[in-house]
Amino acid sequence: MPLDGGGAADALEEAPVFDERLFFPTQAAKSAPTAAKSAPANAEADYHGHRERLRNRYRDGGDAALADYEILELLLFRLIPRRDTKPIAKALLTRFGTLGGVFGAPVSLLKEVKGVGDAVALELKLVASVAQRMLKSELTGKPVLSSWKSLIDYCHTAMAHEAREQFRLLFLDKRNALIADEVQGLGTVDHTPVYPREVVKRALELSATAVILVHNHPSGDPTPSRADIDMTKTIIDTAKPLGITVHDHVIIGKNGHVSFRALRLI
């Protein structure tokens, strides 16, 4: 049978032309979604596995089984559910030095750490507040002078990492039980204005018979200054004629505290 030259030509014109240059880009485009999906899935599996292992270590060994950054990680797990929180925990400790420094830092400084937003910063401050309330509950209504360690622990938690000086008054009844804990004034990094008459006036309003003065040194060094000593003497001299005793003046620093009574300054 003779070939129909015209028909063959028509068939060649209608057949799709295959360009091999399009093969590899097409394959890459098809495989890209699969790769994109598998990488996050693996990453998610990794940090979920890490979280479970860390929880198990804490469950079995308590806080002694974990480093400080791992304790922070555990806390951050529920605040940041879909990220690796280890770098954030380590960055917080690098910036603020200790767990106490992290929880004592103001919200504005916490938010300067990469990965810490409003929600995380506020949750960290909430933990600090819970710790303070817990320690304060050990003092309220109890003789403070026989619970001195608890008093120092509370004051250190509440004040040691404040960026500004804070002057706190602990008012006691005739049994030396705590009846009120108030911040009388906030100052600068190295000075707080204190008004002895206001201290005595507030003690009379609360029917307090004794008071303990507490303030912090943001520098970290609790050594009393000459101004601290003079101010304490003025408060004592103002309170004594009205039957109000100043039991002590405690200065809180990041790494310790100083008691005026222990130094025989009272």
From TrEMBL:
PROSITE patterns in the record: MPN, UPF0758
MPN domain segment(s): 144-266
Pfam families membership: RadC (PF04002)
GO MF terms, alphabetically ordered: metal ion binding; metallopeptidase activity
Domain of life: Bacteria
Biological process terms in GO annotation: proteolysis
Keywords carried by this UniProt record: Hydrolase, Metal-binding, Metalloprotease, Protease, Zinc
Family the entry assigns: Belongs to the UPF0758 family.
Name listed for the protein in its UniProt record: DNA repair protein RadC
UniProt organism field: Rhizobium lusitanum
